Amino acid sequence: MRLHHVQVGCPRGGEDDARRFYGEGLGMVEVDKPPLLAGRGGCWFRSYADDRAGGRVVAAEIHVGVDVPATPGRRAHPALVVDHVQELEDIARRLRDLGFVVDTTERHTFPGYERFHAVDAAGNRVEVMAEAGAGRSGDR
Predict the structure, then answer these.
(1) pLDDT (tens digit per residue) in 116-126
(2) Most buried among 8, 48, 86, 129, using CB within 10 Å?
(3) What is the DSSP string of 34-51?
(4) In Å, how far from its chain's centre is CA 63?
(5) Range 128-140 burial, b when 16+ CB lie within 10 A, else e
(6) Residue ranges of domains in the chain, CATH in brackets
(7) Residue 136: band (very low, low, confident or very high) from pLDDT cuts 50, 70, 90
(8) Coarse DSSP helix, strand, coil percentages of the chain, rounded to the nearest 5 percent
(9) pLDDT tens digits, residue range 86-133?
(10) Which segments constitute the VOC domain (predicted)?
(11) Do 14 and 121 form a contact (C-beta atoms < 8 A)?
């Protein structure tokens, strides 16, 4: 079994805010929704990774769907893993620069990882994590 995607909600008209958070902030790529679903609103995002054969595979996919009324996931959340602690820090900085809340109070509470939690414009909680010590300045 594997995970195909996670869906979070946004209010009607919240797609541009989702693009700022998931696209600009997290660095995910927006992909077209299938034509049969496009009329529902929302937007979809993917991140890619290199596979062992040198090709690209989908590493994570988040679907932002329109909820009426919008009810953010405050405890339930997607957790995204990045390759390096420096990437974790870069994403946190980008999100803060875009005006999003980034909480690092639980930075060292998940054994083997460093992490932060952020809140998208619709109030959904998102966790971003990296293996502890991976890719620190001077480690390369």
Answers:
(1) 999 999 999 99
(2) 8
(3) PHHHHTT--EEEEEEEE-
(4) 10
(5) bbbeeebbeeeee
(6) 6-131 (3.10.180.10)
(7) low
(8) 20, 35, 45
(9) 999 999 999 999 999 999 999 999 999 999 999 999 999 999 999 998
(10) 2-131
(11) yes
